[in-house]
Specification:
This is Berberine bridge enzyme-like 5. This protein is α+β, with helices and mostly antiparallel strands and about 400 residues long. Helix content is about 30%, strand content about 20%. Strands 1-2-6-4-5 form a 5-stranded antiparallel beta sheet. The chain has a 3-stranded antiparallel beta sheet with strand order 8-10-9, with helices on one face. A 3-stranded antiparallel beta sheet has the order 11-13-12, with helices on one face.
């Protein structure tokens, strides 16, 4: 068990009153109210209400179960039900308060001003709170909770930015909190999104898709293959590039090869990259034009930096990480020579490129199916009238 200990220091004598034994909770499920002793904790209150109401009633307050009810409600008390049922203090309908003269006052005897003050103004300034009477609220038999963690490399910053724009506009049954936390010993952060929804997941998922669909984003991927482990100092140099402005938009993904995969010949299929230890992808994404140039330039800088540590002659790359910067076809006369296309073709397909050209020449000699990095035909006279 983890205990939180607070240290208070005072230069003058003071009295601390322990109300831990004032923890009685009386629930009236039919009336939908409860009297709660000031020494009870939120967890005790939640459990008692659920038990007495067959999980059909709840009290809207905070998420920490060990917090005392007495002070929590007097300061306001917010939690995951507040967007539908307001603050905990808003559900207070009566109170028992000992004033400076030792009198036990209720709502009527304390007057509307004092009753107003102790619901959000902090009761310790006005007396000793003995008990609260609160309204209970209806909840469905099934609620949904979830927590999602994202790192900077997983676009935590962009997601958090989006959260700021939509969290307060969601349906009142859904509350999503967002936390940011640094990672010990590392120059990186994680974002933690926790949520509670008053309903089942069958209703929540369509709602998330409708309301939380993130803004359109743009991406670019460059990739490499690695045959020998990258030295530690090289990895540290890569970190320095990623620490630059815009670096949080780039996610470097390493995927290991080996096993049965490496036992298959590089010519068994058109995919030739089987002799490598792992694949590297520099995945960059951004959300608006203002970011685009900075992120793309940084992605290129990272790619250039990694050149000494990856495959060479050719510097191989994965075809599905389409990268037009390594070369493209020129269709000035509807024809690209094999030599010209080899600039990018050898990177994607290595020695298999020539065989792919042979297949293309036989299957589509006039190069009808073409794009910036399509396999070229050896036939020079392509049709100028056809459009792809």
């Amino acid at each position: 068990m983890i205990m939180r200990v607070s240290l208070y220091v005072s230069e003058v004598p003071f009295v601390m009153i322990d109300l831990i034994n004032f923890n009685q909770i009386d629930v009236d499920a039919e009336e939908k109210t409860a009297w709660v002793g000031a020494g009870a904790t939120l967890g005790e209150l939640y459990y008692k209400v659920a038990e007495e109401s067959n999980n059909l009633l709840a009290f809207p307050a905070g998420v920490c179960p060990t917090v005392g009810v007495g002070g929590h409600l007097s300061g306001g008390g917010f939690g995951y039900l507040m967007r539908k049922y307001d603050l905990a203090a808003d559900q207070v309908i009566d109170a028992h308060l000992m004033d400076v003269n030792g009198r036990i006052l209720d709502r009527k005897s304390m007057g509307k001003d004092l009753f107003w003050a102790i619901r959000g103004g902090g009761v310790a300034s006005f007396g000793i709170l003995v008990a609260w009477k609160v309204n209970l609220v209806d909840v469905p038999p099934t609620v949904t909770v979830f927590t999602v963690v994202r790192t900077l490399e997983q676009n935590a910053t962009q997601i958090h930015h989006k959260w700021q724009q939509i969290a307060y506009k969601l349906p009142e049954e859904l509350v999503i909190s967002a936390g940011l936390k640094s990672v010990e010993g590392k120059r990186t952060m994680v974002a933690i999104f926790s949520a509670e929804y008053l309903g089942g997941v069958d209703r929540l998922l369509p709602l998330m898709q409708e309301r939380l669909s993130y803004a359109k984003y743009y991406m670019k991927a460059k990739s490499d293959y690695v045959r020998e482990p990258i030295p530690v100092e090289a990895l540290e140099g890569m970190y320095e590039v990623l620490y630059e402005e815009g670096g949080h938009n780039i996610y470097v993904i390493s995927f290991p090869y080996g096993g049965r995969f490496n036992e298959i010949s590089e010519t068994a299929t058109a995919f030739p990259h089987r002799s490598n230890k792992f694949h590297l992808m520099y995945y960059a994404e951004w959300y608006d034009d203002e970011e685009s140039q900075r992120v793309i330039e940084l992605d290129r800088k990272l790619y250039d930096y990694m050149a000494p540590y990856v495959t060479k002659n050719p510097r191989a790359t994965y075809f599905n990480c389409k990268d037009l910067e390594i070369g493209r076809n020129n269709f000035g006369d509807n024809y690209t020579s094999v030599e010209e296309a080899g600039v990018w073709g050898n990177k994607y397909f290595k020695n298999n490129f020539k065989r792919l050209v042979d297949v293309k020449t036989k299957a589509d000699p006039d190069n009808f199916f073409r794009n910036e990095q399509s396999i070229p035909s050896r036939v020079r006279q392509g049709s100028r009238k056809r459009n792809h």
